[in-house]
Design goal:
Helix content: 25-40%
Number of domains: 1
CATH superfamily: Vaccinia Virus protein VP39
Low-confidence stretches: none
Distance between the termini: 39 Å
CATH topology: Rossmann fold
Largest sheet: 7 strands, mixed
Number of strands: 9
Shape: globular
Mean pLDDT: 92
Amino acid sequence: MEPALTPQEWAAHFRRQAEWTRAARNYLYRRADLHRARRVLDVGCGTGTITEEIAARIQGQVVGLDISHEFLRLREGGNRASYIQADALRLPFSNAAFDIVLCHFVLMWLRDPRQGIAEMARVTRRGGRILLCAEPDYGGRLDYPDLPHAAWHIEALKREGADPFMGRKLRALCAEQGLDAEVGCMSAPWTSEAVRESLDGEWATINRITREFVSEAERRTIRGREEAAIARGERFVFMPVFYAAGQVTRPVSGL
């Protein structure tokens, strides 16, 4: 079996994800008046890419929380944020401790995303904001010509215990916590250059995550079809990644 990503590879992956979603985050930061926040919590912070981004933008306290000791050990440079190892389903903070609580590509990995959002709401003050910055939905991915990329990602994520359809569930999850959230979908322009540049990176991921259920011969065949489509200038991809921003309007006691 091909080994999983090393912590260093995960750190590079987190940086790429943060770059993909930068425009949406900037929009959410403005909606939440981030510059006014005194205490911010980044749940599932990984190596701290976004935590440090926030710390550079505000004068208040920023806390990054992750369950992985290895991720925290490799956290990004900077000394304005503080970090803690803990479970997103049992946040070690008192009620209403933060002005803004956010996460980024996290809910899809939680065994109980409802409890995860309930905990985020519990530690957010009344009038504060919860920002779910990015959750994908592979069920809405479009590929032209038709290729099995979406189906392969869905199968791999299910095998890893993740939810490949989390994006479409954000509004319902927020509503359960009394959050009338704004939900949107981010997209990016897929120029011919962007498609070509993404090819090797996506196939490195595909080769890793499908090794157990897709043969090497089939992967080679599909990559050949994709490269031919790129050469003809007809390759198109739409991968929906959703965000949500909600305001806590009542005290939340937690579960």
